[in-house]
Amino acid sequence: LNPNGDTSMCLDVQDGVFTNGTPVQIWNCNGTPAQQWDLNWGPTTIRLGTTGFCLDASTADPSNGTPMKIWDCLDVPQQNWISTVTPAGGIVGLANTGVCLDLRGGSHTPGTVVQAWQCVQAETNQIWT
């Protein structure tokens, strides 16, 4: 997954550490397992390749600024994402919350936190390709 069409940056597991609670960030795309997300457009979990970990929002209704992390894939609301395609790219929202996957401050600097934020139409921080 790339933020707002920037194919040089990828959704990434911090330091490539596959442990419950490891933060999710953006980083220079490098093709490592820490960046190999499986996303199906529509209702889905966002799986991290074959690791058994999923993108997790910490709670079923996270507040603005809640950092994303990885956690064992479970059938829980905080891992239930809905991905929709728009003319600008994809928007990834947490089901039944009005909260979207958001790039903190819209910064494309490596290490920038990926967080939960209220969905805002046409918000470039929330476009993923």
From TrEMBL:
Pfam family, one: Ricin_B_lectin
Listed PROSITE patterns: RICIN_B_LECTIN
InterPro entries: Ricin_B-like_lectins, Ricin_B_lectin
Domain Ricin B lectin: 1-129
Name used for this protein in its record: Carbohydrate-binding module family 13 protein
Species: Macrolepiota fuliginosa MF-IS2
